Amino acid sequence: MNFTRWSARLPGTQRRAAARTEQAVVAAPRGDGSVPAARAERPTDGAETGPPDGAVGLAGLDELPAREVLDRIPALVALVHGADHRIAYVNDAYVAAFGPRPVGEPARVALPELDELSLLPLLDQVLRSAKPRTVKSRKAPSGRSYTFTCTPVTLPLGGSAAGPEEGGGVLVFAADVTDHAEAAERLRTSERAQRETAVTLQKSLLPQELEQPDDLRIAATYQPGGTEAAVGGDWYDVITLGGGRTALVIGDVMGRGVRAAAVMGQLRTAVRAYARLDLPPHEVLQLLDGLAAEIDASQIATCVYAVHDPNEGSLVYASAGHLPILVRDENGTIHRAEEPTGPPLGTGGWLHTSGSVPLGPGSTAVLYTDGLVERRSEDIDEGVASLERALAGATGTPQVVCDRLIRALGVAADHDDDVAVMVVQHPARTGTDAELFRNAALELLGGVEAAPRARAFATGVLASWRFSPELHDLGVLAASELVANSLQHGTPPMRLRLRRTDSRLIIEVTDGDDHLPRRRRAEPADEAGRGIAIVATIASNWGSRRTPGGGKAVWCEFALPK
Asked: Packing angle between helix 258-275 and helix 281-295, nearest 10 degrees?
């Protein structure tokens, strides 16, 4: 028997002691019966005792030094033989751990600890295959943990030849690994606690309830990685910009754990702040790029920032190294918004640009992170293609589409990466909603007649929408003030647009001058400067922005009674 093989599993002085003992065993004379003698109860009166009933006599076992070696090994050693694994020997360490064991009795009766640890089937397997087997860190009823190695041995029976089952045995070697097992369990507990902290932090930083714009139906899902994976920095957000426009954001901070979740929270907060400036998507990403480098230069993030304008029927977006937006139009055709795409946030030295993809009534857009489509066994383009096929057949509400896409891409609870998915639907209105006169626009040519024409136009449109007299008068006043401000400070071309949604009235005036108005306090002697102040006072909300082609848009909103 090779004790060096087992002693390699013993730390420090135990391993060296086992090696020295092995040398002693090799030097000692050995006979054909070179196996350890069965540990039996020693007689107190010096009388010789034979094996108990049913035990098989093993020739010359007591005269071998191997027994003394095994007795001194601190690991647990037991020797069983035969088809029912009768006990031939247990060493002192085994007796100290589990108590004396009767020699000759079957293991199922005499070694109940092996039965409780489900090792008896392993003994059968070792005996049949004649190959050693090892099971790691099994916890015994005593509370100690052991690693068991079961090695097949041949036990010659005294006086006659034996068949393989009668002469076959198994040497059970158990190393105490309680300290290692407890350390591993403490480590797992610590990792679980850290992961739960990161998950809690990340979910608290994500929007608890998505904003629901009047023209869009939106749902989003976040699923953290499996129990063995640290949480990443995926995030999403929906931001109502005013004037009927909506910003959609999704991003992924590289790295895992609490640090990634914290960086994600800072970026999400910054996106909401920059979105209030109502800047074009590429300018928002440009600001985020510099901020990401200041937060942590060692971490980068990918992000898509998109703005939906119902008047344009499109999604204007900018991408910082993120995966392309997918859009399924009302005919079922899938569009992939691939260009333009800049480098991830935090890399610096790059000017991002904006692109556009159609998002008309009846369309569905999907924004997602790489955990949904990236697999180690395939190229990421194959994952995006799989998502396109899944989107082509996914119907229902946005939340239903989210769930179907996650299932179609094989994302389960033990997925090795976190996943964020946002589904945006621009519903096609039917029936009475489709017949409702929801948009009205008037081109303003300038001159003294522009203001009266704008007032008359607003009066007629608001009357046709059957608003209350109070809301009607406030709407006409707001339109008049915005037009007057544009006529005084703006340049042609000018346009007045009125729009009605399910919950608000939106009035917007555009002109060719890019100077944005601001609200200021007018002195009693001032003849001008009160228009924006009046609009801000009577409206639910107001704002201004520069338009892509040059110029500006000034808008205000009135909440409709529910």
From this structure: 140
